[in-house]
Amino acid sequence: MSRPIRAYIDCDAARHNLQRVRALSGQAKIMAVVKANGYGHGVERVAQSLLEADAFAVASIDEALELRRSGVLHPIVLLEGVFSTEEFSSVAQEGLGVVLHSWQQLQMLEASQLSLPIVIWIKIDTGMHRLGFAPNEIERVWQRLHALSNIIASIGLMTHFAAADEPNSVLSEVQLSRFNAVRQSLPDTLPISMANSAAIVHLPQAHGDWVRPGIMLYGVSPCDVSADDLGLRPVMTLVSRVIAVKKVLAGECIGYGGRWYVPVDTRIAVIAVGYGDGYPRHAPSGTQVLVNGQLVPLVGRVSMDMITVDVSELPSVAVDDPVVLWGEGLPVAQLAQQAGTISYELLCGVTKRVPCVEGRAGAEWFAHA
Ligand SMILES: *Cc1c(COP(=O)(O)O)cnc(C)c1O
């Protein structure tokens, strides 16, 4: 058998999560966010699992073209819009929608010769202060777009929350009221889109016409409520196996830098996963790992290809025993918290050398070798 690490991708869970998002989103349409290779899950298989979404959203035209090549006919929105005038031609040809967030992009649009009209989402910076026009610029943007009405199929209004994961966030309230103030000055028929996953959960008043869930679709809670309580199922389960077990005597130390000092004689299991696979190098000793269905603590530094865990409490652990790094049985959010990062980064960071297998890490994987 090859090196035993695998990322199981449960497409049924993705389908299920989409239904949960629908149930939570009222009448809003769903723009499924599949940027960064479907948050590391493989964009084609994710898109195929989410065909019941009303549209897809990605970061760039390259990601959109990948979706089109895989046969996706849905509306697709480029969340950062275009990076050059030329890209607008492909946008028109492929029937994509673009976010318009800056005067530079507006100039590019004015300079482009389009064969077909395109869908535009005006991005309003209501307080995140990343992309978007300031509220007081929207009227001028609107006038300039009006002159381009022959190349525009439709215009929507979009914003993005900075702190929707915090319940009762004052910032979210401020952003919402700034957004609504801008809407007052424009035709009230324009479609609006504000909510990422966290806002779908915490800000029902911000659902608007289109919600933009990302992380929830992958089965991860966007906030303090657990994924279980939201009815979400993990899509990715990262598994590996024990490749060595040994006794290490009190007074020794383990791993690079000898960072974990062995207080009493300890049984150590070595697992085939490391930062070269996307396991977070900064996970401290004590971070939980699921070995044979039991939580055990990581000890010593994470290496490129291996980690070491203390299995003194589990005398039966042996080479080939199954390990879950995150996913079913161990929420990725829990590891993220222990490692000082976020689920998004862990999911996106699974490296190329990790083989993906479609399905659940079922009996076959967990059966003893
Ligand atoms: C990535 C992204 C989303 C999705 O965010 P989640 O927190 O994963 O739900 C929504 N909107 C925009 C503009 C994004 O960039």
List the main descriptive attributes of the protein structure presented here:
eight-stranded parallel beta sheet; TIM Barrel; eight-stranded mixed beta sheet; binds pyridoxal-5'-phosphate; alpha/beta; 2 domains
Task: Walk me through what this model shows.
The protein is 27% helix and 22% strand. The protein starts with 5 loop residues before the first strand and ends with a helix. Strand 7 (152-158), helix 8 and strand 8 form a beta-alpha-beta unit. The strands form 3 sheets. Strands 1, 10, 13, 14, 15, 16, 17 and 18 form an 8-stranded mixed sheet that branches. An 8-stranded parallel sheet has the order 8-7-6-5-4-3-2-9. Strands 11-12 form a two-stranded antiparallel sheet. The protein has helices at residues 11-24, 35-39, 43-49, 61-69, 85-93, 103-111, 138-146, 170-184, 197-202, 332-338, 343-348, 363-366; strands at 6-9, 29-33, 55-58, 76-78, 97-100, 118-123, 152-158, 192-193, 210-211, 236-248, 253-254, 260-261, 266-271, 288-291, 294-297, 307-310, 322-326, 356-358. It is built from 12 helices and 18 strands. The mean pLDDT is 96. With 369 residues, the chain is of the alpha/beta class. The protein has 2 domains: 11-218, TIM Barrel (Alpha-Beta Barrel); 236-366, Lyase, Ornithine Decarboxylase, Chain A, domain 1, CATH 2.40.37. Residues 33, 35, 79, 160, 196-198, 212-215, 222 line the site of pyridoxal-5'-phosphate.
